[in-house]
């Protein structure tokens, strides 16, 4: 009997503990502190990092909420208001501003119209689409020094690239100077770091990919009008930066497959 009571008491204690834990975790977490000029600490660092990601802050995070952070928050709040959000523009980071700042849909800093950004043509409807294939699968099909036809999804312009190598993504160069006109056209007639959805042809199969418009690094194909190589990303490709995925390239790959 005593043993049964002990077991019953233990079960009840466990249930009460579980209920208390559930209550603690289910309780909504709300921010009560308002961060403003002269605030300091880890949360301020996070605010500054996020402001930098979105283009509102241009200096290294310090963890101290000074005049430049105030100005950056004001600009962010103003941008949110322009998008229809009901925020006060006061340079302070309260609960609602914090929610907007860390939301996936947080608006980026608006680039002034006076700033020239070279950009190739963008179409309402893609001219060509391809299928998504993993980088590991594509890598098995690529042969060094072999030419591959690349078609820009927005314009339908095509050109030939020579695969020259690459471990985590493909590195390629224009096959000849005659390919330069089409490549320059899709890039807005000026080399830039913008990325575009393309397909790469393997026989009759179009494979979704992404290309960036800035030749750089090693150069092995002579007399092609281009110094350096460009990078081609496929699904699962990784960047040179810490072997991390590239969000923009990944988005382009799925856009090239009609899934953007």
Description:
- The chain has 260 residues and is an alpha+beta fold.
- It has two domains: 42-101, no CATH class; 135-256, Thrombin, subunit H, CATH 2.40.10.
- It is 32% helix and 15% strand.
- It contains seven helices and six strands, in the order αααααβββαβββα.
- It has helices spanning 2-26, 42-53, 67-82, 95-101, 135-139, 180-186, 247-256, and strands spanning 147-152, 158-165, 170-174, 195-202, 205-212, 230-233.
- It has a six-stranded antiparallel beta barrel.
- Strand 4 and strand 5 form a beta hairpin.
- Mean pLDDT is 88; it is low at 15-29.
Record keyword descriptors for this entry.
single chain, 260 residues, alpha+beta, Thrombin, subunit H, 2 domains, 7 helices
């Amino acid at each position: 009997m005593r043993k049964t009571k002990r077991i019953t008491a233990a079960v009840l204690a466990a249930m009460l503990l579980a209920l208390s834990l559930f209550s603690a975790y289910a309780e909504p977490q709300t921010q009560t502190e308002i961060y403003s000029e002269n605030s300091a600490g880890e949360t301020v660092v996070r605010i500054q990092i996020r402001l930098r990601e979105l283009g509102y802050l241009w200096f290294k995070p310090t963890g101290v909420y000074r005049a430049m952070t105030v100005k950056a928050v004001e600009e962010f709040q103003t941008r949110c208001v322009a998008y229809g959000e009901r925020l006060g523009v006061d340079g302070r980071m309260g609960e609602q501003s914090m929610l907007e700042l860390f939301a996936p849909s947080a608006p980026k800093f608006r680039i002034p119209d006076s700033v020239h950004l070279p950009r190739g043509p963008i179409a309402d409807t893609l001219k060509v689409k391809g299928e998504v294939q993993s980088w590991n699968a594509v890598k098995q099909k690529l042969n060094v020094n072999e030419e591959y036809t690349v078609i820009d999804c927005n314009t339908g312009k095509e050109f030939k690239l020579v695969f020259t190598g690459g471990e985590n993504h493909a590195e390629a160069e224009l096959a000849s100077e005659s390919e330069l006109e089409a490549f320059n056209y899709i890039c807005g007639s000026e080399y830039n770091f913008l990325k575009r959805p393309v397909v790469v042809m393997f026989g009759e199969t179009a494979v979704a990919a992404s290309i960036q418009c800035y030749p750089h690094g090693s150069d092995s194909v002579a007399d092609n009008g281009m110094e350096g190589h460009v990078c081609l990303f496929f699904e699962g490709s990784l960047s040179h930066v810490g072997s991390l995925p590239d969000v923009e390239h990944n988005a382009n790959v799925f856009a090239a497959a009609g899934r953007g």
